[in-house]
């Protein structure tokens, strides 16, 4: 009998482990935080542009505390939740929110259409959802480096991701009255592959795939390091990019 369950692309245990490790690294004070900082800044710009003034707001994901403080200063009653503290693929325990902001929390759910439906249902009348995540086309230099490392037998090491066109379709499928999906680029400069990977690890951005790829061999890692720097500038720096997908949906 065929199962109606979505495929288990991501592992809950691996997501929990990488999030716990990221929290430990962030406590050191010198860990990279460029992604949550950028997501919060972008979310605030959108909230200001739309002149949103929700009575109640739910903020999920990295950087949620900072965004929550800003919304509270604007008069909102805010609930902040780490992704692991709320099941994004189940009905939410509370509803009636005027605003739900998801910061990098939905890109590792196995049932993304279902997760969007649960967020729509948790909104009150006229409520707005803003969901940002790492989108399709991200980390091209890292992807090329890993392909060079694996040679003729490439392993799945990076997450599948959604582009803006698919994002709009997902919002429509989830039943949002109006839908907007767009993407923007975050550009970073690195002098080594190892530093990039360390920054991804400290922000909980390493692999959470259910099917673990085999570890790189020593020679494979050297090939990856060399391939990463092939297009370095005269200062030995490589421009790596993340394409951030932001989906905005309005409740009836």
UniProtKB/TrEMBL annotation:
Give the UniProt keywords, A-Z.
Answer: Methyltransferase, Transferase
Per its record, what are the GO molecular function terms? methyltransferase activity
**Domain of life per record:** Bacteria
Matching entries from InterPro entries are given as: Malonyl-ACP_OMT (IPR050602), SAM-dependent_MTases_sf (IPR029063)
Q: What single Pfam family name could you report for this chain, choosing any that match?
A: Methyltransf_23
| Any GO BP | methylation
The protein's matches in SUPFAM superfamilies, at most eight in alphabetical order, are given as: S-adenosyl-L-methionine-dependent methyltransferases (SSF53335)
Q: What is this protein called?
A: Class I SAM-dependent methyltransferase
Which species is listed as the source? Tsuneonella litorea
């Amino acid at each position: 009998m065929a199962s109606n369950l979505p495929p288990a692309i991501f592992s809950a245990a691996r997501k929990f482990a990488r999030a716990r490790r990221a929290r430990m690294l962030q406590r050191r004070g010198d860990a990279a935080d460029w992604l949550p900082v950028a997501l919060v800044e972008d979310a605030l710009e959108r909230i200001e542009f739309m002149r949103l003034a929700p009575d109640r707001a739910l903020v999920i994901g990295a950087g949620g505390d900072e965004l929550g403080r800003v919304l509270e200063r604007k008069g909102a009653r805010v609930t902040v939740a780490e992704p692991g503290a709320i099941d994004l693929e189940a009905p939410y325990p509370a509803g009636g929110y005027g605003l739900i902001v998801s910061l990098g929390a939905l890109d590792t759910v196995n049932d993304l259409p279902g997760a969007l439906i649960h967020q729509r249902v948790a909104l009150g009348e006229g409520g707005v959802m803003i969901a940002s995540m790492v989108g399709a086309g991200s980390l091209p230099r890292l992807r090329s480096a890993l392909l060079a490392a694996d040679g003729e037998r490439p392993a799945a090491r990076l997450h599948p991701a959604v582009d803006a066109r698919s994002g709009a379709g997902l919002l429509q499928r989830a039943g949002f009255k109006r839908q907007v999906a767009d993407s923007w680029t975050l550009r970073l400069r690195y002098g080594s592959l190892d530093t990039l990977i360390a920054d991804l690890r400290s922000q909980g951005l390493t692999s959470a795939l259910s099917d673990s790829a085999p570890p790189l061999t020593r020679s494979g890692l050297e090939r990856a390091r060399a391939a990463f720097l092939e297009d370095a500038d005269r200062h030995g720096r490589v421009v790596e990019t993340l394409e951030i997908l932001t989906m905005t949906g309005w409740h009836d």
